[in-house]
From TrEMBL:
Belongs to the metallo-dependent hydrolases superfamily. Residues 2-56 form the Amidohydrolase-related domain. One of its GO terms (molecular function) is hydrolase activity. Pfam families: Amidohydro_2. Signal peptide: none annotated. It comes from Magallana gigas (Pacific oyster). It comes from the Eukaryota. This is Amidohydrolase-related domain-containing protein. InterPro entries: Amidohydro-rel (IPR006680), Metal_Hydrolase (IPR032466), Metallo-dep_Lactonases (IPR052350). The lineage of its organism: Eukaryota, Metazoa, Spiralia, Lophotrochozoa, Mollusca.
Length: 59
């Protein structure tokens, strides 16, 4: 099973518009679904894991 260290957010933009959703609605839904997670885990999903995987310097 995958933990937060192996997950990252992807907006699926613009495909989500086919479901009559916009970026804000998709993001708000994900925030709601992840509301029980710690701030540290959400940072991994929304930022840190992608930066590590794609070797991005976010400083």
């Amino acid at each position: 099973c995958f933990g937060v260290d192996r997950c990252m957010f992807g907006s699926d933009w613009p495909v989500c518009t086919l479901a009559k959703a916009d970026y804000k609605r998709v993001f708000d839904l994900l925030q709601h679904l992840l509301s029980s997670m710690t701030v540290e885990d959400k940072k991994k999903i929304f930022r840190e894991n992608a930066a590590k995987f794609y070797k991005l310097d976010l400083n």
